[in-house]
Write a structure and sequence with these properties.
With 186 residues, this protein is of the alpha+beta class. The protein has two domains: 3-100, no CATH class; 106-185. The chain has helices at 15-27, 65-74, 106-146, 149-185, and strands at 3-7, 30-36, 40-45, 51-57, 78-83, 86-92. The chain crosses the membrane at residues 122-143, 149-172.
Length: 186
């Protein structure tokens, strides 16, 4: 069987777009085989069919993983693997109904968004505010005070990291807000 690699970068709030991407690949005859951080998808050739993919931000406590997976299997979901806290599942779209959906209501979807925020955004904000921001100021002061090339290079590195973090926080913040509004309206 032939393999194909695709690169896509998704943030923690883009899981619905990722599910749709995986579904489209399967419709084209490419079944998800593996995922490697930071965004490499390995597909193998298959018969084109409509498969629903779902990502669940894993809520299973260690030791309860088998029960968690068994529950999804009982509803017809095939467990694929875990990556970065997300469990990947797929199921044929033929005969797919709301009763066997992983998220049967908007409350469960909203709870997953809250889990993502608590487990991913809060720690990143702490790292950003406690480590990166103070280092940015320290390096800037060293650059102004001493003017050496090392301080300038470090200041530029911390500036770039600062911009990347701010962009990610804005994107993820908007995404979480969008998902909350979407699930609270329905």
């Amino acid at each position: 069987m032939a393999d194909r690699v695709r690169f896509r970068f998704w943030t923690i709030t883009d899981y619905e777009e990722e599910e749709q991407f995986l579904r489209e690949q399967h419709r084209e005859g490419w079944r998800l085989k593996r995922y490697f951080l930071p965004g490499f998808y390995l597909f193998d050739r298959c018969t084109p069919e409509d498969m629903v993919y779902r990502l669940d931000f894993d809520q299973a406590v260690k030791g309860e993983k088998m029960g968690y997976l068994k529950m999804y299997q009982d509803y017809g979901w095939e467990y694929l693997f875990d990556v970065n806290g997300f469990s990947y599942f797929r199921k044929s779209a033929t005969g797919f109904d709301e009763e066997t959906e992983i998220f049967s209501d908007n409350d469960s979807r909203l709870e997953m968004v809250r889990r993502i925020f608590r487990r991913r955004m809060v720690p990143l904000l702490c790292v950003f505010l406690c480590c990166l921001v103070p280092q940015l100021f320290i390096q800037y002061i060293r650059w102004v005070e001493y003017g050496d090339i090392g301080a300038r290079v470090l200041t530029i590195i911390f500036d770039v990291l600062f911009v990347i973090y701010v962009c990610l926080f804005v994107h993820c913040g908007k995404g979480i807000s969008r998902l909350k509004n979407k699930y609270q309206k329905d």
